[in-house]
DNA sequence: GGTCTGATTGACT
DNA sequence: GTCAATCAGACCC
């Protein structure tokens, strides 16, 4: 596909011009609101971003994964801007970020929600249970296979893998279009982003033909109306709660509901001796 | 090596 | 509204 306008299944005509790497070479709290309305494409699925959160660098932002410095897990965040930082959390979910600032800075923007504008059927298949498409929608050419798909049939899988393969929910319930990528983990599933996509470059340098294996890109899309951009505290974090680095498009139905951080109750197994362990 | 927490989600009451 | 699932990473001893 060339430059200019691209007509997606949903969302109308959007600019298909890729964002340059310089777009991401700015502080994450500046990049974040500018990302609203942009389109992240991975394989056959494209999502127009409607909600994001900015995270700062080491020693700067207590809520950021990089606050305590570089580790193997967060190494991608210290890499060049425009790359995807995909991490595994809660034992079952993946979340995706776009790295900001020059190499070594350690800041990124978490992609929290969006509207699926292309590849709706593929996105729904990934989010839905019991359909062959859950394993058949993936992969786009050049994409790696999901963790679940990478295993042979019948082999035991973790709940996380099962969820990724789309069979963690009772069959028969159709997911509303607005919910396909509403929430960071849902967005990652809809886009088919997994552990192996950590570090994937989302910037197209030069002609796409010169990067035949690149499967992710951020397109100009249709930037959000500045009058509709809202900001507030970030979701689900226990520190730096007052930093208003969550940005969303006001009134957009795909924006996820705000949830404050809920401290985990100590389990019975952890608080008393002799009781049954968790689960 | 042991323990705790987590940038979440879906099921359930 | 509450709660459990699930495991990797970080921290502490």
Low-confidence stretches: 131-160, 162-170, 268-279
Largest sheet: 10 strands, antiparallel
The secondary-structure element order is EEHHEEEEEHHHHEEEH
Computed over alpha carbons, the radius of gyration is 19 Å
Number of strands: 10
- CATH top level assignment: Alpha Beta
Here the CATH topology equals 3-methyladenine DNA Glycosylase, Chain A
Helix share of residues?
A: 10-25%
Tally of helical runs = 7
Which geometry do the CA atoms define? globular
Task: Quote the distance from N terminus to C terminus.
Answer: 50 Å
User: In what range is the share of β-strand residues?
Assistant: 15-25%
Structural class: alpha+beta
Named CATH architecture: Roll
CATH level 4 superfamily: Methylpurine-DNA glycosylase (MPG)
Average pLDDT confidence is: 82
Q: Please state the oligomeric state of the protein chains shown.
A: single chain
Number of spatially distinct domains: 1
GO molecular function, one term: DNA binding
Protein name: Putative 3-methyladenine DNA glycosylase
EC number: 3.2.2.-
Family: Belongs to the DNA glycosylase MPG family.
How would you describe this protein?
The chain has 279 residues and is of the alpha+beta class. It has seven helices and ten strands. A hairpin with a 2-residue loop joins strand 3 and strand 4. The longest helix is centred in the first third of the chain and has 8 residues, at 28-35. It is globular, with a radius of gyration of 19 Å. The termini are far apart. The relative contact order is 0.20. It binds a DNA duplex (13 and 13 nucleotides) through strand 5, strand 6, helix 5 and helix 6. It comes from Nonomuraea thailandensis. Residues 146-166 have a biased composition (Basic and acidic residues). Pfam families: Pur_DNA_glyco.
């Amino acid at each position: 596909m060339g430059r200019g306008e691209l007509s997606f299944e949903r969302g109308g005509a959007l600019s298909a011009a890729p964002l340059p790497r310089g777009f991401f070479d700015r502080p994450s709290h500046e990049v974040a609101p500018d990302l609203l309305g942009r389109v992240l494409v991975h394989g056959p699925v494209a999502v127009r971003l409607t909600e994001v959160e900015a995270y700062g660098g080491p020693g700067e932002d207590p809520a950021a994964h990089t606050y305590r410095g570089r580790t193997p897990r967060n190494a991608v965040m210290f890499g060049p801007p425009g790359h995807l930082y995909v991490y595994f959390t809660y034992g079952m979910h993946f979340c995706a970020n776009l790295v900001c600032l020059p190499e070594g800075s350690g800041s990124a923007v978490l992609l929290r929600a969006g509207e699926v504008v292309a590849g709706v059927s593929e996105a729904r298949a990934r989010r839905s249970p019991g359909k062959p498409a859950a394993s058949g929608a993936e992969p786009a050419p050049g994409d790696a296979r999901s963790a679940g798909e990478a295993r042979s049939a019948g082999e035991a899988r973790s709940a996380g893998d099962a969820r990724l393969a789309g069979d963690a929910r009772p069959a028969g319930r159709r997911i509303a279009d607005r919910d396909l990528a509403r929430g960071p983990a849902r967005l990652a599933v809809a886009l088919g982003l997994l552990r192996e996509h950590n570090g994937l470059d989302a910037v197209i340098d030069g002609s796409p033909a010169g990067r035949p294996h690149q499967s992710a890109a951020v397109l100009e899309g249709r930037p959000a109306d500045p009058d509709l951009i809202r900001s507030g505290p970030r979701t689900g974090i226990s520190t730096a709660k007052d930093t208003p680095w969550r940005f969303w498009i006001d009134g957009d139905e795909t924006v996820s509901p705000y949830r404050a951080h809920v401290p985990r109750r100590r389990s019975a197994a952890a608080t008393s001796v002799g009781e049954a362990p968790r689960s």
